[in-house]
Amino acid sequence: MSIANADAPQVWAELPDERGHFGPYGGKFIAETLMEPVEELQRAYAHFKNDPDFQAEFDRDLAHYVGRPSPLYFAERWSRELGGARIYLKREDLNHTGAHKINNTIGQALLARRMGKTRIIAETGAGQHGVASATVAARLGLECVVYMGEEDIQRQAPNVYRMKLLGAEVVSVTSGSRTLKDALNEAMRDWVTNIDNTFYIIGTVAGPHPYPEMVRDFQAIIGREARQQSLEQTGQLPDALVACIGGGSNAIGLFYPFLDDEQVALYGVEAAGEGLDTGRHAAPLCAGTPGVLHGNRTYLMEDENGQIIPTHSISAGLDYPGVGPEHAWLKDTGRANYVAVTDSEAMEGFHALIRTEGIIPALESSHALAYAMKLAPTMRGDQVLVVNLSGRGDKDINTVARLEGIDL
Amino acid sequence: MSRIATTFERLAGQGRKALIPYFTAGDQGPALTVPLMRRLVAAGADLIELGVPFSDPAAEGPVIQMACERALEHDVSLRDVLAMVADFRREDDETPVILMGYLNPVEVMGYEAFARAASEAGVDGVLIVDMPPEEAEEALAALRAEGLDLIFLAAPTSTDERLERIGRASSGFVYYVSLKGVTGSAALDVASVADKLAQVRRHVEIPVGVGFGIKDAASAAAIAEVADAVVVGSAIVQRIADNAGDEQAIFDAVGGLVAEMRAAMDNNR
User: Fold this and answer.
1) What is the chain A residue with the closest CA to B174?
2) Active site residue A133
């Protein structure tokens, strides 16, 4: 690994560097056949991100198709019950298709169209990114193929049907552990075979450069809005931000516009599954080690021989052995704190929000809520805590019912 | 001179092309690997490309993916593969051995520790599928310090600029991926391979091998007309899988294929 000083002051706006590195993390670890297509994407993105027409089209779609800005909602009753900070929820659950994922798929699909690609592919775990990809494909008239692990297809049946309704082909992935990481492998195999007409919409801030940067930029609307809304509604910047982390796209989207505001504490919440000490979790930042997977260097769940090990989380969307490289660097530099909550703590967060605020959160977002329940009581009543409510829980009611022994 | 360079020089002197069979180390259990390597040499292999099993082989088609999974069921690690090469070297000090795999096992072991251990085991070259020259600076320094060749891929999508960089970084030979796709794909187009090889050779002075999509004696002979080396992987791994459980049948099927390819390539001279 190249030497990068995690103790030196960081100029966050200049990361990644021109090679896609965040300190020692990130980069472009892909087979030669994909190098030129990825560089073509890099050139296209570098051009269009500064193109006023492209930005105007993206902003228009976020406003009128996604329904942005999403509200910053004061969860007054929940805050009072916890007795500490005032908790505000960034309501990404109210977006079209029910999660933050659509911010990114709109951006990438508009880019795909401008690059003349006619077919999009995507990987999905919980199905939210697959639905968001199928949605934009339907709207732009692009062919869409979604790769999904066989195991995830079984536990997320409603989203599979949604994708099919939207005209996408859902391909069941039966290799490896049959979950999200294997869906990513399979999508990369499709991409290398069909690079002439195909655009690969990666759903998180991972993959080869420029994906971590590009997906972050498309998701940063979350933090830009939250920053402005916080100033308007509370007269101050938040004291702390909390977001769940699988690959880390909702978290980086919230954190990024606050990175230079050193007084704002950042908390990324990983899935501790059955507990970090059981080995059955999905918390590479809390309990993993650096390595290379899926095109970038980052923290991974791996064994001493460098094989990727199976992950576990109640939430399919967090069930991934890697994490975006920018989070790896935010961890090493100490700018962000990474913590983990268990499946059962996440369930407590899930029920607490429903009971006090009448909002059914996604199981992914419930991890952030569960950590907020620990953090808020340690803060003063004049402090502001913003939690990213990254998705809604409709897709999870079958899972929750099953866990609670209820047959729907 | 390295074993790889010596081998290519000898073959060039004879007007012959190199045949490089691939299989995944540890497939069907670790005990099969070294005897199978010896069988490949006896059947006419000039170099051996030994796959290092990885949990997420994103550039492989289903045949080699499944071989990786089978090897990992036996917990075959990078260190185990190095021990197999050392074992092979006890009886064969001439045939070059190239390790082909993914970066993470090497990264976790550490570049310098890996380079030292590989050199001690008698490895000659390393091909890391997901490490393009842009990300290879440290690995190159570590491997070169131990006298190992680092072999890079070139692809149908590689531009002149990229080919120049690949040519600069590679030693031993350059591995040209014959098609856009994963290993074991079907659509091999010899004419387009020949066209692209002409472009590759404008930037690459060392030998160029071709792999992906070479399945039988006829395709091996056709590629040998235009390339310095023919790499055959999935066709061999498929024969291993088809004869699982019967070591002699595996030797016969794989040895037979390699011998047919060897004969077809040499008859073309």
Assistant:
1) A32
2) no
Tell me the pLDDT tens digit for each residue of B198-228: 999 999 999 999 999 999 999 999 999 999 9
Q: Is the pLDDT of residue A165 over 60?
A: yes
Contact between chains at A293 and B69 (C-beta distance less than 8 A): no
Give the active site residues of B: 49, 60
Transcribe A315-354 into DSSP letters.
SGGG--S---HHHHHHHHHTSSEEEEEEHHHHHHHHHHHH
User: Rounded to an integer, what is the distance from CA B33 to the centroid of its chain?
Assistant: 15
* Entry pTM: 0.97
Closest to A361 measured CA to CA, from A400, A317, A392: A392
Give the pLDDT confidence score for residue B63 in this predicted structure: 95
Name the one residue in this structure whose structure tokens are 């006023």: A52
ω into residue A16 within 30 of 0, thus cis? yes
CATH number at residue B102: 3.20.20.70
B159 and A CB contact within 8 Å: yes
Cβ of A32 within 8 Å of Cβ of B162? The answer is: yes
Angle at CA of residue A244, ends A160 and A287, nearest 5° = 105
A30/B contact by beta carbon, under 8 A: yes
B45 exposed, middle or buried (CB, 10 Å; 0-12, 13-18, 19+)? Answer: buried
Residue A120 bridge partners (DSSP):
A144, A199
SS3 category, A201 = strand
Q: Which domain holds residue B118?
A: 3-264
| Domain assignment of residue B228, yes or no | yes
- Answer whether residue B246 is part of any domain: yes
CA distance A193 to chain B (A): 4
Residue A375 has pLDDT above 80, yes or no: yes
Is residue B269 in a domain? no
Q: Which two three-digit tokens encode residue A229? A: 């809304």
Within a domain: residue B260? yes
List pLDDT tens digits, range B119-141: 999 999 999 999 999 999 999 99
| CB of B73 less than 8 A from some CB of A | no
Q: Does B103 contact A29 at a Cβ distance shorter than 8 Å?
A: yes
Evaluate if residue B269 carries a pLDDT over 80: no
Residues A309 and A87: their CA atoms lie apart, in Å, by 36
- Residue A65 is classified by DSSP as I
Domain count, chain B: 1
Which residue out of A29, A121, A289 would a mutagenesis test of the B interface target, given it has the greatest number of B Cβ atoms within 10 Å?
A: A29
How many residue pairs bridge chain A and chain B with CB atoms within 8 Å of each other? 131
| Mean pLDDT value across chain A | 96
Question: Among residues A151, A313, A390, A395, which one is catalytic?
Answer: A390
Tens of pLDDT, residue by residue over A316-373, are 889 999 999 999 999 999 999 999 999 999 999 999 999 999 999 999 999 999 999 9
Q: Which residues of B touch A290 (CB under 8 A)?
A: 107
Q: Which of B56, B65, B80 to mutate to test the interface with A (most CBs of A within 10 A)?
A: B56
Q: Pick the residue of B180, B204, B212 with the most A CBs within 10 A to test the interface with A by mutation.
A: B180
Minimum-distance CB partner of A306 among B69, B78, B181: B78
Angle between helices A180-193 and A32-48 (to 10 degrees): 90
Question: How far is Cα B42 from Cα A270, in angstroms, rounded to an integer?
Answer: 53
Q: How far is A240 from chain B (nearest CA, A)?
A: 35
